[in-house]
Design goal:
Elements lengths: L5 E7 L6 H14 L3 E6 L12 E5 L4 E5 H7 L7 H10 L3 E6 L2 H8 L6 E3 L7 H9 L4 E4 L5 H12 L5 E5 L15 H8 L4 E6 L6 H8 L4 E5 L17 H20 L6 H4 L11 H7 L2 E4 L14 E4 L13 H6 L21
Parallel strand pairs: 1-2, 1-10, 2-5, 6-7, 7-8, 8-9, 9-10
Antiparallel strand pairs: 3-4, 11-12
């Protein structure tokens, strides 16, 4: 049968800022039979403050600690590559897809005539960005990892003001995710909450397709999985990603799962099914606090000075103190809000800082 599950090969930052790696990863995704090769378009300065701190991670073999800002800067996708990568994807008959994290990245991609936009779990509370993306009218695939149902609802409502061509991806924002942490029953919760929308699954387990196959049995029409050229490459997202041969196997397993689903010859794995609650689970809280975006000062502000929306930027805090959620930027556009104390550039903006 022809495939109807839309499969996204998530290249993400696994190109390691090397153009040839980008090409090889696109080729790998195309050969495997994926529908889209997905990148992430960001700049360090629009993603984290320089005060974000150090990231400590362990891939089972080695422990590494490095500056968050410097590391993110190292994994940027150069803007000048985008059009060439789109051209190469066209040549390989695979769709170029990219996550956007800020308005400037969105504007760059819009010039490239993309067919759809991807929004990361970490931007689900960034209502100003979601609103801008929805205004384009392009189809949106939005991950919802770490978000509760009310946060998901606010993001969905923002998009539905403009259109309903939206797919919600369930995922866990723990990397890698254990099978018992997948909680694929949330797919059913999303289907009940949003009967008019499509649902899918972004898989961060190290297994090739255990959770992916189960998600298809539960109604996922979109699958996303990280890919790499070699699990031993330098970087935090390689060790749990699929190498080319594994990616091909996953695509074959998806086809097989579609047949089992259509024939009714499938079994739901209770361990992977897990909990149906659309909440931030305990194993996701660290990354949620680390990566969910918040308000920061764009310049030094004196006590008693008005804080205007142009004085604010929306960034991930890393290990810096969390401030107000991005949606609260509206307060500074519609009210005169004064600084309660001196604030420095890159200070987070909290309730106790404003009058």
């Amino acid at each position: 049968m022809s495939m109807n599950t839309y499969i996204i090969a998530e290249i993400g930052i696994n190109h390691n800022s090397n153009y040839e790696n980008c090409i090889k990863l696109i080729d790998s995704a195309s050969v495997a039979g994926c529908h889209a090769a997905k990148f992430q378009l960001f700049t360090a300065k629009a993603l984290y403050p320089k005060s974000a701190g150090e990231l400590d991670w362990q891939d089972g073999k080695k422990k590494i600690s490095y500056s968050i800002y410097d590391a993110v800067e190292r994994f940027e996708l150069p803007v000048e590559w985008v059009q060439d990568l789109i051209t190469h994807c066209d040549r390989k008959k695979i769709e170029f897809l990219s996550s956007v994290f800020d308005i400037s990245g969105l504007n760059i991609l819009l010039k490239s005539n993309l067919k759809k936009i991807k929004l990361s779990s970490y931007t689900i509370t960034n209502i100003p960005l979601i609103d801008a993306v929805a205004q384009t009218g392009l189809p949106i695939i939005m991950s919802t990892g770490g978000a509760n149902l009310s946060e998901t609802e606010k993001a969905v409502e923002t998009i539905l003001k403009y259109h309903d061509n939206l797919t919600l991806l369930h995922c866990s924002i723990k990397y890698p995710t254990q099978l018992e942490e997948c909680n694929l029953a949330v797919l059913k919760t999303l289907q009940y909450a949003y009967p008019g929308l499509k649902v899918g699954y972004s898989d961060h387990t190290i297994q090739i397709s255990d959770a992916v196959v189960q998600s298809i049995y539960l109604g996922a029409s979109v699958i996303e999985k990280h890919i790499t050229l070699d699990k031993n490459m330098d970087g935090p997202d390689h060790f749990f990603a699929l190498e080319p041969g594994e990616l091909k196997k996953m695509v074959e397993d998806v086809k097989s799962a579609e047949s089992h689903f259509n024939n009714g010859t499938f079994v739901i794995d209770k361990q992977i099914l897990g909990d149906s609650s659309k909440i931030c689970h305990e194993h996701e809280k660290y990354l949620r606090d680390f990566c969910y975006m918040t308000l920061f000062c764009k310049r030094n502000l004196k006590k008693g000075e008005q804080i205007k929306s142009e004085d604010i930027e929306i960034l991930r805090p890393g290990k810096a103190k969390r401030g107000l959620d991005p949606a609260y930027i509206d307060l500074f556009q519609t009210n005169i809000i004064l600084a309660k104390k001196d604030l420095n550039i890159e200070d987070s903006i909290c309730w106790e800082h404003i009058l």
